[in-house]
Amino acid sequence: MRMRTVRTRERILHAAADLLTREGRAAVSTRAVSAAAGVQPPTLYRLFGDKDGLLDAVAAYGFQQYLTEKQALGETDDPIDDLRRSWDLHVGFGLSRPGCYVLMYGEGRYRRDIPAGPETLAILRRNIARVAAAGRLRMSVERATQLMHANGVGVVLTLISTPPPERDPELPAVAREHVLRTITTMGDIEPEAPTGVASRAAALRETLRDSGTTALTRSERALLAEWLDRLADTCEPGPAARETPGRRDDRDADR
What we know:
Blueprint: H1 2-23, H2 30-37, H3 41-48, H4 51-73, H5 79-96, H6 98-105, H7 116-133, H8 141-160, H9 171-183, H10 197-211, H11 218-232, H12 239-242, H13 245-254
């Protein structure tokens, strides 16, 4: 009996997600979903409570599909290229399931109660942490994760709200590379030779996180982590960048 209930629930969710993708949110009525799933309306109410409960379940269903696809990406030896592939998957998923995507990310609330939601963000964080460990991150892992996630969601929601003929097909790639230039060193330096306080602080933060060192107490580790994150998120130009041409010329004239 339990397996039959699970299969019925999955059939209803699949029907609702399909209606949402093909015809939009307005088409997802309890009557239409029940008919598409081949069940009676009381069955839907018993499993989901009401339409809002059904839509929440569809959002969870979408997050689980997205998580499955994201996990299938795997990892390569290039963490920055892995971020590109993750971004492209995110955009492709959102544009192929616009109605479901809006339920997942466009409702103005973070769905912490859906395990697959935070886990998709955790995968992004792990990929960015690999960049940090290689000394190629310009800021803390937390800030970089939020920045990339926010920009990815913004790009997809912008494209969804734009009529297809008016969409800029190059926008996702342009935005992706802009974000990567902002949060990583890209090709500016060799991965083996990180430079700059921010990159070094982010690299040390992730190295300590994974090291399991017992040289510091828990409170000392927390304090050091806070300091390293603060250093990683303080973008200060180097000495050369702080010098204006006028000031250099003045000093040269004084000599």
